[in-house]
TrEMBL record:
Organism placement in taxonomy: Bacteria, Pseudomonadati, Planctomycetota, Planctomycetia, Pirellulales
InterPro entries: AB_hydrolase_fold, BD-FAE-like_dom, GDXG_lipolytic_enzyme
Organism field: Pirellula staleyi (strain ATCC 27377 / DSM 6068 / ICPB 4128) (Pirella staleyi)
Protein name: Esterase/lipase-like protein
Domain (BD-FAE-like) ranges: 69-270
Statement: the UniProt record of this protein carries the keyword Magnesium: no
Length: 339
């Protein structure tokens, strides 16, 4: 009798365990679905003087916003060129603090959108990086064409941006003038040259051979030359760029800012705020896509050519400007220098 009672108790307990266990398991934190992260809202910013001004008709992204600085005299302009690897990002990422830092110093501001790599590939543009870079140049020329209407001094225009936006800014600053004086299009006749550029986390070369010599773990740039594809990783894109380097070498030289340096170029400020340790050429970097080694090599070439180049990173040499913003304000408020 006692044995029968014990067996019955064990069966009841086992039944309770099989009933309750799934319920407890479903309530464990490890299996609770995580809520989806909300998209980050763009920062607050002043109402543009001119919003979404079209500078091209090949994409809905060929627009910029313009904020006019109050002044009795024609004002300098700073172009804000957003980052995102030429594959993402938007002009709305620039908020009040950035825009007003210039306007309170009598400098007008324009924030530029441009075509992405995937859009360029769909439009069969070769290389795809031509689209975002030439879009930025066209936006700059369009702004110059509005000098009288918007009270702009066309001889004093600077550019800034982070990462891919920084590379674009450097390309504008160092590339020969794209103006076509004989064009029937008045915008096309405007200069594409800059007075100065101050950038953050800039890539200064897109040459995979050079980059691997600078940083053995470099992986950035394959997408710029058409080696992007759905599901393909950045290292895989880079490997394809290495494999096809000789075929695309003319493109590499055309779109790598460091290849374009000449003695008549604008002064440059190169900031690398996320650099964790002093840059050493030939060593792997914690963030090889935004390493100060990029800036170190461009600064060396600028100095050798006689162009002012300021390199800044945490723990690095001190300079007279302190930040990209102060550099641009100082250069753009100085007397204009015609290039």
């Amino acid at each position: 009798m006692r044995l029968r009672f014990l067996l019955r108790a064990m069966l009841v307990a086992l039944a309770l365990c099989t009933t309750v266990a799934p319920t407890l398991s479903a309530q464990t934190p490890a299996e609770t679905p995580k809520p989806k992260a909300k998209a980050k809202a763009p920062p607050k910013r002043p109402e543009p003087t001119v919003a979404n001004y079209k500078y091209g008709d090949q994409s809905e992204r060929q627009v910029f916003d313009f904020w006019k600085a109050e002044s009795d005299q024609p004002t300098p302009v700073v172009l804000l060129i957003h980052g995102g690897g030429w594959r993402g990002g938007d002009k709305s990422s620039y908020g009040t603090s950035v825009i007003e830092a210039y306007r309170k110093n009598g400098i007008s501001v324009a924030a530029v959108n441009y075509r992405f790599i995937e859009q360029a590939m769909a439009q069969k543009i070769e290389p795809p990086v031509m689209a975002p870079l030439h879009d930025a140049a066209r936006a700059l020329q369009t702004i110059r064409s509005k000098a009288k209407d918007w009270n702009i001094d066309p001889t004093r225009i600077g550019a800034t941006g982070g990462s891919a936006g920084a590379c674009t800014s450097l390309w504008l600053a160092l590339h020969d003038n794209l103006a076509n004086p004989s064009s029937k299009d008045p915008i096309d006749r405007e200069s594409s040259r800059l007075t100065c550029a101050a950038v953050s986390g800039a890539q200064t070369s897109l040459d995979p051979k050079e980059l691997r010599e600078w940083m053995p773990n470099a992986i950035y740039g394959g997408h710029a030359f058409g080696f992007a594809a759905p599901g393909r990783t950045r290292p895989e894109e880079f490997d394809l760029l290495i494999e096809n380097r000789e075929k695309v070498l003319p493109w590499i030289k055309e779109y790598s800012p460091i290849e374009l340096v000449t003695k008549d170029d604008a002064p440059i400020y190169l900031d690398y705020p996320n650099q964790k340790q002093p840059p050493v050429v030939g060593t792997s970097e914690a963030d090889p896509t935004h390493s100060a080694i990029y800036g170190l090599k461009l600064a060396e070439k600028l100095k050798a050519t006689g162009v002012e180049g300021v390199l800044a990173y945490p723990g690095g040499p001190k300079n007279d400007y302190g930040s990209p913003t102060n550099f641009l304000i100082t250069k753009l408020k100085a007397p204009a220098v015609t290039k």
